[in-house]
Each structure stands twice: as structure tokens, then as C-alpha cells.
Amino acid sequence: MAQKKPKFYVVWQGRKPGVYDSWDEAKAQTDGFAKPLFKSFDSKPAALKAFKEKPHVHIGQAPKATGKQGKLTELVGLPIQDSLVVDAAWNTATGDMEYQGIYLATRQKLFLMGPYADGTNNIGEFLAIVHALALLHQKNSNIPVYSDSRTAIGWVTRKKANTKLEETSRNAELFELLERAETWLKTHRFANPVLKWETTVWGENPADFGRK
User: Fold this and answer.
1) Is the pLDDT assigned to residue 55 strictly greater than 70?
2) How many whole angstroms separate alpha carbon 153 and alpha carbon 78?
3) Both 55 and 111 in a single domain?
């Protein structure tokens, strides 16, 4: 098995800003911190150089906002540009569901799956997060994954899709994917933070299908 390439983590805003050699050390400085700013780098020299620079050079510039919106942005912070954002779409007329994931910094689409018959939006959101985690695991990347579904994030945390959808001959493939996703969560360790996309502050999820 190929050895994972080491990563180095810059924490600009956290309990103790600095450059860290492991995600566990960086996470201790950022997890639960009100407005953390951090990013991974492939080499220590690159990380040390980035730490001396302004964070938004590497993770995106803050949008200018005033009034109530500006106060919310200050409270919540900004989305991490070096991240993967996922979303799902469910057709109320046909019951078909699909999901996709994009790289936030460039808006490049990394995957698009479906449509799957007789699904639900929550199932799509759950599968999208797990798909993103599995893809990043293959790439040895610990960047965050954003979803705007608290339900799906909770399912991922519990490693179980608590759906009330009944299995039928039409959605058997979907239930097989759910089982595989749950198994993957139970058999793999990952350091990627799974974070809530704050729609009311940042606007529509960039992975949204635009069909509302």
C-alpha cells in the first residue's frame, strides 16, 4: 500500500496560530473556534511561507457586506475556499434524486451521480457527503466537506442513514448505495471536517442544482 503524502497545516486564526505537522494538532486549534482560518499544504516550506502572508490570499477574500448581513458574516466567518461542497436535488414529480460535488475555490465539478429512482433529498445529501469523503480519502486530502443539510451531517456523524423511505424494486440500487456508504463510514477513518454550509450568510450552496 502506498504511503500517504504528509500534509502541513497553517492555522491563521485559532486557539494558537501556527504551522502544524498533523491534522490532529491543527484540529485542536480550530475545532469549535468561532472563526477559524486554516488550510493544508503539501510541503512545510510552502506552509511556513503562507503563514507569514494574509490568509485570504490562500482561502479567498471576504465578500463586503454591511448592516445585518455584515454582522452575520463577522459572527459566522467565511467558507474555507480549499474545500469540497456537495448538494442533492429531488424531483417532486418523478421522485428521482441526484447529487453532485464541486471544489469551492474553482467551482470545478468533481462528481455528478444519478438520477436514482424513488429517492429522497436527505438520502442524496447523505450519499453526496460520503462520496466526497471517499474521493478525498483516495486523494489523501483532508480538506473540509460542506453540506447545507443538518440531517445528512447527523447521519454521517452517526454512520447510519436514518431514512423512513421504504425499499422497492425501483429504488433497490439506492438502498445498495446506502448500505455501501454506511459500511464505508464504519470501516474508514477520515480527518476531513464535515461542516454546515451557512446559506443565510453565504448565499446559495454553490453545488445547488438551481431548480428551485
Assistant:
1) yes
2) 19
3) no
- Residue recorded with cell 465539478: 109
CATH of the domain at 14: 3.40.970.10
Q: Domains in the chain: how many in total?
A: 2
51 & 118 share domain = no
> How many Cβ atoms are within 10 Å of 151's Cβ, its own excluded?
16
% of the chain exceeding 90 in pLDDT: 59
Binding residues for Mg(2+): 87, 125, 148, 208
**Residue 25 belongs to what domain range?**
8-63
Examine residue 164 and state whether it is found in any structural domain, yes or no: yes
Residue list for the binding site: 87, 125, 148, 208
51 and 32 housed in the same domain: yes
> For every residue of 36-65, which 3-state class applies, written as one string?
CEEEEECCHHHHHHHHCCCCHHHHCCCCCC
pLDDT mean over 50-74: 62
145-147 and 84-90 strand pairing? parallel
Same domain? For 87 and 172 the reply is yes
- For residue 85, give Cα distances in angstroms to 49, 90, 106, 111, 197: 27, 17, 11, 11, 8
Decide: pTM greater than 0.70.
no
pLDDT in tens, 110-151: 999 999 999 999 999 999 999 999 999 999 999 999 999 999
Cell of 17: 496560530
Could you tell me if 123 and 189 lie in one domain? yes
